[in-house]
Amino acid sequence: MKRYIVLLFIISSCNFSSKKEDVVKDDTEVEEKVLSGIDSMHIREYVEKSFQSPMHSLEHQQYLDSALTIVPESAWLWQQKAMPLYKARKYQLGKPFLDKAVEYAPEKYLDYSGFVRCIFSKDYIKSISEFMRAKKEFGDGYVMDHTYNFYIGLDYLQLNKFSKAKEFLLLSKEQQFRDFPNDPPQEACHYLDWYYLGIADFELGNYEEAIASFDMSLKVYDNFADALYFRGRSMTKLGDEEGAEWEKKAFENGDNTINEDNVIYEIYPYQLFHKLNASERPQ
What we know:
Elements: E1 4-8, E2 32-36, H1 37-52, H2 58-70, H3 75-87, H4 91-104, H5 106-119, H6 124-138, E3 142-143, E4 146-147, H7 148-158, H8 162-179, H9 185-188, H10 191-204, H11 207-220, H12 225-237, H13 243-252
Antiparallel strand pairs: 1-2, 3-4
Helix pairs in contact: 1-2, 2-3, 3-4, 4-5, 5-6, 5-7, 6-7, 7-8, 7-10, 8-10, 10-11, 10-12, 11-12, 12-13
């Protein structure tokens, strides 16, 4: 008779998956399944070898495939296959793996998938639908340091639906005020929420409101070049000649741009100061 044990995947210290952008919901991902001792030993071996291989290597994927032949319903393993492909901008290859993770554990990976579609693959309509489903089934929450409403707001910004973007960014702000009632407004609400709320108002022509939001963002990140630039543009739109000085200051602080973990892989919406911007290249 085979001896059965409960298999626990407890993997939180691997070289590439220890970064917080790769952690979903918790610092430790746990999968439970009754397996034979031999199977559990093989899975642990495959996973350890996958982490010892370079993240973008074929070997990394093959070891995860070997583990999945034993536990094909492991949402965490599917997510681990998807993540390096998205970081390599191989979105079409990563998509079916991320879909599998959502299929097997929507409570853990539906919001993560919405985030990936917003920031990585730019599938904004699908991102909105996934976040709306997550809100309906699991309530408002956070993923990768931001509210679901924040990402929905970014999705709508990128679809030029500026009124809808503002609607959800305001919901995000109100959510954070409720969740962090003891913090001052500029800290209770993330500086990027203030920035993108300013962007929504800028696009709507509400320049005074935009300036107020950019100022809140700048209270936390005082040399934030992108906010400095759009504050200057808003001033110029209002006929204030000093706007040009703010724009000049923005370019002087061009290295101080959006500092999310994933900016090493992707340019964020309305991120003016990035390495593909010709004005940022060495002369």
